[in-house]
Amino acid sequence: MEKLKNDISIKSERPAEPIKRKRTIRAKVLKRVADIFNFFYRGPMIYNGLNSEESINLLLQNRKSLIRFGNGESEIMAGFDMGTQRYHPELRNSLIKILNEYSESSKYYLALTNWNLKVDVKTLKKRKNYKIWRYMRYFLWYFDIHGKSKLPFLETDMFRVGEAGLPNELIEKLWLPYEYIIVIHNSEKYFNWFKSKYPSKTMFFIKIPDRDFFFVLEQKQREILDIFAKYDIPKNNSVILVSAGPGAKVLCYNLSQMDFLCYDMGNYFHMRYRLEQNET
Fold first, then answer.
1. CATH no. for residue 270?
2. Among 2, 123, 183, 216, which has the highest number of CB atoms less than 10 A from its own CB?
3. pLDDT over threshold 60, residue 1
4. pLDDT band, very low/low/confident/very high, at 280 (cuts 50, 70, 90)
5. How far apart are alpha carbons 230 and 223 in whole angstroms?
6. What DSSP assignment string belongs to 136-200?
7. In total, how many domains does the chain have?
């Protein structure tokens, strides 16, 4: 939840009927393992975590896609369902692959919630954030983030409204240079609002379900490729903006391997739309 200056709260987008959270046997075991790890290792995670300004500048300097890992991704990796996505072992394995394959030669940047992961357990508990970040802390250690110490990890919350969030005038620089914008989202209302702000752009909308996007990922990926083929859209003059939960990470990874530019936007459309409504 993010706080505005006038104390209006903007929550992350949730489905009309959220998935009832369940956990696998793996999740039950990993809960204890993560707590044991965090009991013995209480310091901040050590890696090259950028702040929001550094993150946006790096994206603007280099044509690479963006994949954002938040607490939801770590909980899927741990074996939990989320409100927007049921657990599936293929999704878990895909997220681990994205984390393990991240390197200097990757066609994507990986973002983490640095402002929460670069502090110690005591600070997280003071912020009442420990429970949702204990899994990510454990996985970063388990998959040896220290071995990737030279790699930049961008700030995943730079698109949000609130702490670590950037002004929209900076964020929109990511798509302003491109003529074609493809938006993947569950809300046509948000798409129409976004489209109205950039009348000179040619935009396309691919509607997705408000939950379990991963289970229709292949179909939606084909729809994206069909748009590029039908309208003869050049890759170097286009950008794909995705808000689709944990499945968005896999979609952006797949598209980046085909040399498309894809940004995982998270709750950007929802939060910025709500912010604008609150300010009027």
1. 3.40.50
2. 183
3. no
4. low
5. 10
6. HHHHHHHTTGGGGTTS-EEEGGGGSSSTTPPPHHHHGGGTTT-SEEEEEES-HHHHHHHHHT-TT
7. 2
